[in-house]
């Protein structure tokens, strides 16, 4: 197409416009012809070998139409009358908006075209739109089932933004600058290419995005619960919106912070996983076969599953990691539960050396040394251990629970194992005895909880309501019902978590009730 500067001479040539119709000026040498035309209803090639200007809107209502060498000063409409047929635009500039409501799966081709906004919204079928050559489009809105192909754009061609606002299937192919998913339950398949940025809005709850082989996303920012699958690669992912993000792709860097966040890695791997400091606890589930290379916790996190963690650095209190990472480093004065053990582990106390009397006297009876034992907190069906520091080493040790229905206790060597059986608290008594020594008794308290975590989201999906995510310690939580206030929560079987919206006044852990179904 001619440079835009060449178009500036056209308005000065136009001297007569018939009101209410569209005038087409066909420049031929030093003369031009005027043809009044408002729409096309028959197949054919429209437009001269030079250049023409259509003042106002223009409508194409037939298949097998080619519009070329044309400037439309108003809007361009490709209507339902096209059916599954083909329409081609070549060397066309549309100064208004372009609406596509017809066309088939390989039929709308835009070559060397300049558009402000292109909306694709066929109600009864799939439309394939191809941007070719030096085509330049500011924004494409996909409002219906469609395929957007930009694989044939030249270096001078571009598409600034793709906006997806349909729950129908959408497929993308080529390189994109910015993709925004803004529809609840959107279904997006990224076939080939890459995107500098892909984001979802808070309205795009439960969107599903599949990345084809070798597809690469520079930055992914979900604004609502999301399911991400495929064979592609995400260079960087930032999660700060509440809800479940289910991931089955490879990610180089994942950063999470906020309340009510639940991330489940069901496939693929994460090279670097950072949990930033925030008021909430980020819940993470790593399925068997998944892998996290480097895990850094600057905020509290609860991590479950059988996925591998190679290196974990814990810089925040309130963290539990069900599996045992290859390497674990804790910041100063930070405690965490890792692999069923409390870290850092207690250093065994050495018994004091026996005192030697300066003068012969009747020796006093020594007392068995038994180190103090810290209290424990656990979930129903979970176990915890404590290692005992006893001297002499051959002292007899006995253990008992004040309420075995809540917490039972067993002893193996110098290790105590406590099992949480039901919600409540129990006192564990440990006594060490040896002939010729006074007995030593220690007690500690075990608190057993049904609720493992209670998280609330910062964003409100409905006025006056708060998003809550509750996880239980039960190994099979589907047999339980969770109610917050008077609102029952929905059970997410894949995540083994309960999710829902409750009135603001009820959104506290103290209002959680757990009942067996």
TrEMBL record:
Compositional bias per record (Low complexity), positions renumbered to this chain: 356-369
Coiled-coil parts of chain: none
Region annotated Disordered, chain positions: 339-389
All residue ranges annotated as the BIG2 domain in the record: 355-442
Transmembrane parts of this sequence: none
Domain of life where this protein originates: Bacteria
Identification of the protein by name: Ig domain protein group 2 domain protein
Native source species: Dethiobacter alkaliphilus AHT 1
Pfam family membership, one: Big_2
InterPro entries, A to Z: Big_2, Invasin/intimin_cell_adhesion
Biased segments, Basic and acidic residues type: 339-352
């Amino acid at each position: 197409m001619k440079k835009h500067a060449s178009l500036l001479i056209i308005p000065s040539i136009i001297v007569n416009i018939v009101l209410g119709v569209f005038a087409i000026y066909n420049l031929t040498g030093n003369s031009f012809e005027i043809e009044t035309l408002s729409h096309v209803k028959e197949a054919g090639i429209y437009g001269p070998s030079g250049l023409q200007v259509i003042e106002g809107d223009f409508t194409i209502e037939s298949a097998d139409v080619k519009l070329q060498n044309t400037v439309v000063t108003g809007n361009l409409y490709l209507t339902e009358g096209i059916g599954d047929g083909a329409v081609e635009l070549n060397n066309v500039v549309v100064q208004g908006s372009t609406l596509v409501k017809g066309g088939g799966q390989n039929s709308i081709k835009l070559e060397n075209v300049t558009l402000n906004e292109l909306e694709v919204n066929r109600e009864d079928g799939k439309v394939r739109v191809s941007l070719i050559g030096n085509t330049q489009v500011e924004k494409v809105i996909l409002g219906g089932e469609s395929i957007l192909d930009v694989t044939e754009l030249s270096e001078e061609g571009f598409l600034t933004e793709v906006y997806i606002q349909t729950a129908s299937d959408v497929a993308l192919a080529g390189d994109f600058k910015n993709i925004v998913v803004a529809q609840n339950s959107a279904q997006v398949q990224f076939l080939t290419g890459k995107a500098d940025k892909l984001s979802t809005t808070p309205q795009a709850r439960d969107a599903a995005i599949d990345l084809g082989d070798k597809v690469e996303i520079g930055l992914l920012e979900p604004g609502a619960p999301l399911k991400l699958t495929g064979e592609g690669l995400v260079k960087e992912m930032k999660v700060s919106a509440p809800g479940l993000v289910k991931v089955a792709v490879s990610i180089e860097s994942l950063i999470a912070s906020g309340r009510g966040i639940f991330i489940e890695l069901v496939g693929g791997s994460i090279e670097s996983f950072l949990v930033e400091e925030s008021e909430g606890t980020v819940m993470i589930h790593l399925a068997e076969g998944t892998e996290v290379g480097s895990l850094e916790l600057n905020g509290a996190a609860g991590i479950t599953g059988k996925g591998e963690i190679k290196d974990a650095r814990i810089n925040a209190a309130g963290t539990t990691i069900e599996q045992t990472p290859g390497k674990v480093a804790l910041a100063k004065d930070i405690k965490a539960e890792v692999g069923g053990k409390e870290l850092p582990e207690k250093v065994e106390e050495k018994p004091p050396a026996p005192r030697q009397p300066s003068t012969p006297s009747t020796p006093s009876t020594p007392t068995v040394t038994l180190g103090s034992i810290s209290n424990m907190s656990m979930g129903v069906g979970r176990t915890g251990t404590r290692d005992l520091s006893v001297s002499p080493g051959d002292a007899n040790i006995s253990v008992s629970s004040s309420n075995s229905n809540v917490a039972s206790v067993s002893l193996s060597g110098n290790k105590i194992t406590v099992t949480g059986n039901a919600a409540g608290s129990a006192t564990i008594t440990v006594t060490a005895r040896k002939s010729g020594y006074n007995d030593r008794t220690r007690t500690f308290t075990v608190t057993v909880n049904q609720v493992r975590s209670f998280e609330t989201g910062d964003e409100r999906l409905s006025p006056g309501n708060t998003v809550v995510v509750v996880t239980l310690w039960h190994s099979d939580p589907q047999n339980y019902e969770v109610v917050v206030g008077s609102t029952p929560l929905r059970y997410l079987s894949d995540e083994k978590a309960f999710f829902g919206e409750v009135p603001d006044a009820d959104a506290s852990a103290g209002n959680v009730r757990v009942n067996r179904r």
